[in-house]
Amino acid sequence: MDHPVSIWPVLALVLIHFFGMRLRFLSGLPRSIWLSGAGGVSVAYVFLHLFPELNEGQEHIEDAVQALSFLRHHVYLMALLGLAVFYGLERSVVSSRKENQKDSSDEQASPGVFWVHIGSFALYNALIGYILFQREEGPVQEMLLFAIAMALHFIVNDFGLQDHHQHMYRRMGRWVLVTALLAGWLTGFLVEMPQSVIVLLMAFVGGGVVLNVLKEELPEERESRYWAFLVGATVYSVLLLAI
């Protein structure tokens, strides 16, 4: 591809990992209305754009899994898997932080849990980078809608990861995520996966987005702004339905 337009959205996502945590007005309690609104945008994109797209791609899954007929109409199993994986990761981090706080008053998760958590988000970022490259084949507006939703989602993720891992995330974690994002995008130049595989990857990412947004919004101690979440979801929903 002579002119990879997706390089600009990818660079924007990279900058978010580098500078997103410096947006001090997003930190503190009650939860920033901008973070809640960003979460609403991400979830709206998944439900109104990504999941319907997965439904349209179901025929590719049917052709690819003829030997496994019970999977033919269950592309959303991958979305459920994405949600379940990130839910399990979140529980392991929370448990590790509680144990460390009891033993040493250290609120961070253990190094082992940190690397598992960051490694999983690195894979997540790589998938998003690869999917973003694949958007080159469609209308530019489709790529931009995906990039905007993921950019806001990355901001939410960055604050969540920094809360869990603090200086370990700032010193190492964000570099791993940036490297993974770029690696996933660059893989698009070298590897062209079957459409059925891309559909499954998108489903996994969609499930991960839903869980990673809601886990930041639901805890009572976050004092989240439901109205901001609702406004973000509504505004982006209107935009998606209008295009």
Automatic annotation (TrEMBL):
Keyword Membrane annotated: yes
Parts of the chain that traverse the membrane: 6-25, 32-51, 71-89, 109-131, 143-161, 173-191, 197-214, 226-242
Presence of the UniProt keyword Transmembrane helix in the record: yes
Domain of life, source organism: Bacteria
Keywords in alphabetical order: Membrane, Transmembrane, Transmembrane helix
Listed name of the protein: Uncharacterized protein
Organism: Pontibacter qinzhouensis
